[in-house]
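Subject: complex prediction, re-run

Hi both,

The earlier run crashed halfway through, so I resubmitted it with identical inputs.
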Amino acid sequence: MNGERRRIIGAGLLVGLLGVVLVLLGNPKNMGACVACFLRDIAGALGLHRAAAVQNLRLEIPGFILGSFLAALAFKEFRPRGGSSPILRFFMGAMVSIGALVFLGCPLRMVLRLAAGDLNALVGLLGFSSGIAVGIYFLKKGFSLGRSYPQTKVTGSAGPAFAIFLVILAVAAPAFLLRSESGPGSMSAPLIYSLGAGLLIGAVAQRTRLCMVGGIRDMIMFKDSHLLSGFAAIFVVALVGNLLTGNFNLGFAEQPIAHSNHFYNYLGMLTVGLGAALLGGCPLRQLILAGEGDSDAMVTVMGLMLGAATAHNFGLAASATGVPVNGQIANWVVLALLVVIGLGAREAISVKRSATKSTGKEVSA
Amino acid sequence: MQYTVDARGRSCPEPVILTRQALADKSIKQLTVLVDAAVARENVTRTLLQATGKQPQIKETSAGEWEISIKL
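This time it finished cleanly. Structure:
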């Protein structure tokens, strides 16, 4: 096993471990860390939606961004960039959120749910993999959101600055912040642990490029198991942790913050898989890229947050009782939109290919 | 022939797709891939190493930009 492989497995082990520990410290069950859920809770805390059960300014998310930011600075990988279809990425981020809240979790929570014996997450994993397969089809057909370009340090710092703003808000706790009194939003680890775990995960994910969508994508597309080994490590250590702490309960019924509508568990995660494959990374990876100065990824994060708020404002988000009709309709709509984007956004790369071909010939001539 | 893939500014997995497309073209004898992200540098290097069994040459042309070349 080479060093790169050891590092990504180590990162997966740490993320899985912290996922279990954060639940012991107070986070909702099987939600040690969930990017979609926590962005939704932050949107709620800021008053962007009024679902009383899911409002909490959680510091794991700003921790991911800042951990990545600090690691990128330390290893000279902070590179302000942007300009690769930001508005499309914004809406695609929102679409991914809507799919994730139909399933009830981002890809990271899907793995944590699976590691706690929640078989609904296995259905989700099948959907997620199917969505990635569809995304690969579009990528092979030449799908591209276009290239990004270097930007100023100010642009690159916007994401980390927003993360610092959220930390200040959480610590100052002004009266206008909303906070759930019951439900998942009322449950959280103490701020300092949330932030600390977030910083650690952010830093190791930046160093190792850990990505849930990348794991399955590279395996299907290139038979490259590199990123998948990180994914597997999260599962294994969380499984062991859940078995040791008595949080393992195998089955479909009565799983924490989950429902057993198999069809929409499948379709919701298919939407996430497709959207994230086209975006070039899972929601966690978008936060990490935002910390490295990728302003397109930060735009995607804002889109994820808008999608989460919309999911609750419009009654789209699922709950333990199932997926509301509005959510079922919305899931089909965003899936159709992602297919349109997948088919439509491919001009940029074909233009570029012919351009490099001529450059290549000039050099040899 | 010599061929250059410009993968600068491209999201995952586009740099690897472009590299593999170039590898499939047997008329290319000298391949250079331009990247401007550490993750793309690692992925392209790993792809070239796995496909050819040879370690590609990596040159940092400016801060945060690399030229990865290999003889095929």
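The interface with chain B takes residues 4, 75-77, 79, 81, 83-84, 139-140, 144-145, 147-150, 209, 211, 214, 217-218, 221-222, 224, 226, 279-281, 349, 352-353, 355-357, 359-361, 363-364 of chain A (CB under 8 Å).

- K.
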